[in-house]
């Protein structure tokens, strides 16, 4: 596995690969890799001829009070995991390499950036869109792989590629979880063992709410209340949001349509650690009941 630190070298590498007919896959990360990240690298190596993984803790997506300085970093650990997952190139740019002229030009995402997670992190999605656009311009990938774990981010990146005519195919991969259901995250390192155990309430609540919807409940307020009630069982969990939304555009209708797909989204703080998680649910189509037909005299 090659380590590349400069944008021009990476671009040259990617152009060379593509001129030899190879499909280039790209997995952007902030490093401190875990099995969630390596699942994306493995998927990319199945679908593409070469895989580039980036390690870059992007300063522009952190607010001043957030954990940019303390975000975990461990190059050797990342190198070993990426290599094992079949990565061909590890791209490790410095801040100066990614922002050589500071931050004068940036992208703005629109409505999607300011709802749900964006209400709590108003600069976040514009920062993500800007760095992803820069990384795409450096890696020039055919396909890029993102995790469903950051659901709203995956929608933002799909719009980015579509709206900016980038032509990069965005592949969204399933959430990898610990055995107790907790979604893997580099930030789980901040949790104590007891908090890790307690944090399973997020996935449990998502699953219970999925079953609630599958039992025929389509009213959004009822669904949100159910999800909140489940989460409130854990003392000390500060819920930023716990909501159901349309999985395509994050709209929040009064009632979800039969056959539509809902995403249940949670953002919450446990101790000092911010956790996010989500689950997709198909709203059932009510079956036509033969007995009803008889009673209605049809
Ligand atoms: P991050 O390093 O946290 O910015 O994440 C880099 C990529 O890995 C993003 O596309 C994330 O959605 C994805 N990712 C992070 N955690 C997981 C997980 N538990 N399962 C699947 N993908 C994940």
Structure write-up:
This protein has 298 residues and is an alpha/beta fold. The chain folds into 2 domains: 2-173, HUPs (Rossmann fold); 186-282, Pantoate-beta-alanine ligase, C-terminal domain (Pantoate--beta-alanine Ligase, Chain: A,domain 2). Helix content is 37%, strand content 19%. It is built from 11 helices and 9 strands. The chain has helices at 7-19, 35-47, 75-84, 95-98, 117-120, 124-139, 151-163, 193-198, 201-214, 220-231, 290-295; strands at residues 2-4, 24-29, 50-55, 89-91, 143-147, 169-173, 237-246, 261-270, 273-282. The strands form 2 sheets. The protein has a 6-stranded parallel β-sheet with strand order 1-4-3-2-5-6, with helices on both faces. Adenosine monophosphate binds at residues 29-30, 36-37, 39-40, 146-147, 149-150, 173, 175-176, 183-186. Adenosine monophosphate (AMP) is lined by residues 29-30, 36-37, 39-40, 146-147, 149-150, 173, 175-176, 183-186.
* Coarse morphology: globular
Helicity level:
25-40%
Overall number of domains:
2
Q: Name the strands of the widest sheet in spatial order.
A: 1-4-3-2-5-6
Taken in chain order, the helices and strands follow as EHEHEHEHHHEHEHHHEEEH
User: SS-based structural class?
Assistant: alpha/beta
What does the oligomeric state look like here?
single chain
- Point out poorly predicted stretches: none
C-alpha termini separation: 69 Å
CATH homologous superfamily grouping of the largest domain: HUPs
Question: What is the average per-residue confidence, as pLDDT, rounded to a whole number?
Answer: 94
Number of E-state strands: 9
Instruction: Tell me what portion of residues adopts beta-strand conformation.
Output: 15-25%
User: Main beta sheet: strand number and arrangement?
Assistant: 6 strands, parallel
């Amino acid at each position: 596995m090659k380590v590349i630190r400069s944008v021009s070298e990476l671009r040259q590498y990617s152009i060379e690969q593509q001129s030899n007919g190879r499909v280039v896959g790209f997995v952007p990360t902030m490093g401190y890799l875990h099995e969630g990240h390596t699942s994306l690298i493995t998927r990319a190596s199945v679908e593409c001829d070469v895989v580039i993984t980036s390690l870059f803790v992007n300063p522009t997506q952190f607010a001043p009070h957030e954990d940019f300085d303390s975000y975990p970093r461990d190059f050797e650990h990342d190198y070993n995991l990426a290599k094992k997952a079949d990565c061909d190139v590890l791209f490790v740019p410095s801040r100066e390499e990614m922002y050589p002229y500071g931050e004068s030009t940036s992208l703005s995402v629109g409505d999607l950036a300011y709802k749900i997670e964006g209400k709590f992190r108003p600069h976040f999605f514009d920062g993500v869109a800007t760095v992803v656009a820069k990384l795409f311009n450096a890696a020039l990938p055919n396909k890029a792989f993102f995790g469903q774990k950051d659901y709203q981010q995956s929608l933002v990146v799909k719009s980015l590629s579509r709206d900016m005519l980038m032509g990069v195919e965005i592949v969204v991969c399933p959430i990898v979880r610990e055995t107790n259901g907790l979604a893997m995250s580099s930030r789980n390192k901040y949790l104590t063992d007891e908090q890790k155990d307690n944090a399973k309430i997020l996935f449990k609540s998502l699953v219970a709410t999925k079953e609630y919807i599958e039992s025929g409940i389509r009213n959004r307020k009822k669904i949100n209340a159910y999800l909140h009630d489940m989460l409130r069982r854990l003392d000390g969990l500060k819920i930023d949001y716990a909501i159901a939304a349309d999985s395509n555009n994050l709209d929040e209708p009064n009632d979800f349509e039969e056959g539509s797909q809902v995403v249940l989204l949670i953002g919450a703080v446990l101790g000092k650690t911010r956790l996010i998680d989500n689950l997709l649910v198909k709203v059932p189509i009510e079956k036509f009941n033969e007995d009803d037909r008889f009673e209605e005299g049809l």
